[in-house]
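Many introductory courses stop at the sequence. We go one step further.
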Amino acid sequence: MRSQIDLLATITVLGALEQAYFALQVIYARRKYKISPPETTGHPEFERIFRAQANCSEYFPIFISLLWVAGIFFHQGVTAVCGLLYLYTRFRYFQGYAVAAKGRLGPLYTSARLLWLLLGLALAGLLAHFFLPSSLAWTAALARPLQLLGAW
């Protein structure tokens, strides 16, 4: 059982660590610019860091839900690669937003595409599960070209 979800669990823990990192950046910015909670306005750099953290936190439940559904019903390896790419793009989003608001746009669009991809994988896996008699063979056949490329 564990080997069927180990990659998903790893990506989930990495995501939680990333969220903790973002939260710590807000704490450091509050100290640096002397902005006490519950204030959310002040120095422009603090506001960008605060917004970046809030935006990443808002999308995290959607990401985790899609990660697990796609990983269980489609293919764990393909989903884990998408999840790792998503976490990387959110990290780039956070970094870009902290510097300048326009710096968030490229990673924002990429992370949105990855969420749509995870949604598609989750839907494909669920449809195969409910409507195809041997959905495991179907998803394995779909994932085979990626395995040949050495994606995991």
